[in-house]
Amino acid sequence: MFKKILIANRGEIACRVIKSARKMGIATVAVYSDAARNALHVKMADEAVHIGPAPANQSYIVIDRIMEAVRQTGAEAVHPGYGFLSENRKFAAALEAEGVVFIGPPSGAIEAMGDKITSKKIAQEAGVSTVPGYMGIIEDAEEAVKISQQVGYPVMIKASAGGGGKGMRIAWNDAEAREGFQSSKNEAAASFGDDRIFIEKFVTQPRHIEIQVLADTLGNTVYLHERECSIQRRNQKVIEEAPSPFLDAETRRAMGEQACALARAVGYASAGTVEFIVDGARNFYFLEMNTRLQVEHPVTELITGIDIVEQMIRVAAGKPLPFKQSDLKINGWAMESRLYAEDPYRGFLPSIGRLTRYRPPVEGETIGGGIVRNDTGVYEGGEISMYYDPMIAKLCTWAPTRDAAIEEMRLALDTFEVEGIGHNLPFVGAVMDHPRFVSGDISTAFIAEEYPDGFLGATLVPVLTRRIAAATAAMNRVAEIRRTRISGTLGNHERLVGDDWVVTLQGSEYTTRIDADREGSTVGFADGGALRVTSDWVPGQPLARLMVDGVPLVLKVGKIPSGFRIRARGADLKVHVRTPRQAELAKLMPEKLPPDTSRFLLCPMPGLIVNIAVNEGQEVQEGQALATVEAMKMENILRAERKGVVKKISAKAGSSLKVDDIIMEFE
């Protein structure tokens, strides 16, 4: 077995590999750029080597810099993680020439399957059903339009070396094909150093289901069942689960066997993933094969008990797989929510900054008897950089059933504290409560269909708002009692805490009466119902863990005048708890309106202006491209919301802007 391995990556996946290596007694080497000197993976590794400036194309994807780190540390093997050089045949070949083991598949398999154009041709030759498309290299935007017309809209424009949603666009007409081709090409060049593009038919209402395969160098190949990855936004996975709620045993077996056959056809060894799109009749079509460790591998580990990273290391060392296909059963259900540094209230645009608070739920067993796991690469006080992928953690839960795994995830998400940056915890929390998701009736179009106007916050069902009303009424009583005990107050005056309170939240008003005792409070409502609330929460704590009628409820708590800011299940609520007289007077108060910014194009995120597409004095039409902003390796095109005339342009190409900086003004 290896004594020392180098991880040619950063962030949570580098930390994940270090954990398995440490468990196996293997020393680890981290590599870091200027932006990651104080990163968690650097702190966790036994050694760390600086490899260059912050941009990935000057550090993490420069083969010579990684090779120099290997020579400097004497590492015997290299694990590439995912992204960066993980599917780069030249990198694997360079390691082989140096006598260093690549913890991944042979370079020939990377070349055959890692390239999406080549892999499709091999799949077709092997008799695998594939999606119609054009597999050749596309030279320019006009050729992309011509091919798109031949294939038939809608089409998917994809980077041949792509992954993680980078270099990928859906086009529904000629204009979108032309524009999408150039953006995909630019993103592919920046992220992978390879700007080749291909086009395929976009299958509407599909499910994205993938098969995890493992193969050793001795000819043994198995599949570790499937993962459902249909909850995607901009072609990037957000929530994954294993197994799929859609597949039956027959389809699962057929997909698994086909995935293994494809792996054998290219002499595959190590962990890999064969991705399929599946229609409503359970017809499945080969999409691509990722010749690396997938981001979402933890859910497979949770339902199989297999440490996939450990098996990758063992296979690279020439060891056989310690199990057969018949040994691999599905145990329970697992969910994964990706925590992204992006603001769901601003169209999910990237967010950067310092994590002023980062408190994930405690890993291990939970109240419901399930398991919580959090794979992360950050820590409280650390900084989220603009140079890399916005994913900062993967929160996973396991339980015996799908419903129980979802409930565990709800509680875990409500427990997860993140402050200082925009993040998507409210959004994934809302999805966990969405009736379509709970029923398993999903497709890759789920987010586009259910949130067509973006995410504006969750609207909680009355049963839940009633529980929150009871909880906050009880919490307010605790806070009021504490305020009566403040020293130094005027004499001859005693502040009494009443029993009657009016709670308002989400447009509803609850008249309550509190009957308190040493163990908790019974909160009665005007309709005669009552809820029992118990908790050890005290004022000042940002997280309240309560039991409401014996059912767990977790609330993120902030103080506002006459109440609380409560965040739970994807909702961000102002909850006011007032005396009956205060509630009566509050209804007479005027509402403060936000400032009018409709005449300005504001930068929606910290980023770099790639180009300004209009000039001062120019008339623009609704939907017309105005500017392109790049952040976290993604290009974002800002469009006109309505017809108008550009009065003044305040930014130029190359400008670095903050959130809400003015890009241009309209007449």
Trace the largest sheet across and list its strands. 14-13-10-11-12-15-23-21-20
Whole-number radius of gyration?
A: 27 Å
Low-confidence spans: none
What is the general shape?
globular
- Helix percent reads 25-40%
Portion in beta strands = 25-35%
The number of helical runs is 17
Number of strands: 40
Class of secondary structure makeup: alpha+beta
Distance between the ends: 69 Å
Oligomer: single chain
Residue-averaged pLDDT, rounded? 92
Care to describe what's here?
28% of the residues lie in helices and 33% in strands. By secondary structure, it is α+β, with helices and mostly antiparallel strands. The protein has a nine-stranded antiparallel β-sheet with strand order 14-13-10-11-12-15-23-21-20. It has an eight-stranded antiparallel barrel with strand order 25-26-27-28-29-30-31-32, surrounded by four helices. Helix 4 (89-98) runs antiparallel to helix 5 (107-114), helix 5 (107-114) crosses helix 6 and helix 7 crosses helix 8 (174-192). It is globular, with a radius of gyration of 27 Å. The termini are far apart.
SSE order and pairing:
Elements (H helix, E strand, L loop, with lengths): L3 E4 L3 H13 L3 E7 L6 H5 L2 E6 L10 H11 L3 E3 L9 H10 L2 E2 L4 H8 L1 H10 L7 E2 L6 H11 L3 E5 L8 E4 L2 H19 L4 E5 L5 E9 L5 E13 L2 E7 L6 H17 L4 E9 L5 E7 L6 H8 L3 H9 L16 E8 L1 E2 L5 E2 L2 E2 L2 E3 L4 E2 L5 E6 L6 E2 L6 E9 L2 H14 L1 E3 L5 H9 L1 H5 L6 H5 L11 H23 L15 E6 L2 E10 L2 E6 L4 E6 L7 E6 L2 E10 L2 E6 L2 E8 L1 H7 L13 E3 L4 E6 L6 E2 L4 E7 L2 E6 L4 E6 L6 E2 L4 E5 L1
Parallel strand pairs: 1-2, 1-4, 2-3, 4-5
Antiparallel strand pairs: 6-9, 7-8, 7-9, 10-11, 10-13, 11-12, 12-15, 13-14, 15-23, 16-17, 18-22, 19-24, 20-21, 21-23, 25-26, 25-32, 26-27, 27-28, 28-29, 29-30, 30-31, 31-32, 33-40, 34-36, 34-39, 35-38, 36-37, 38-40
Helix pairs in contact: 4-5, 5-6, 7-8, 12-13
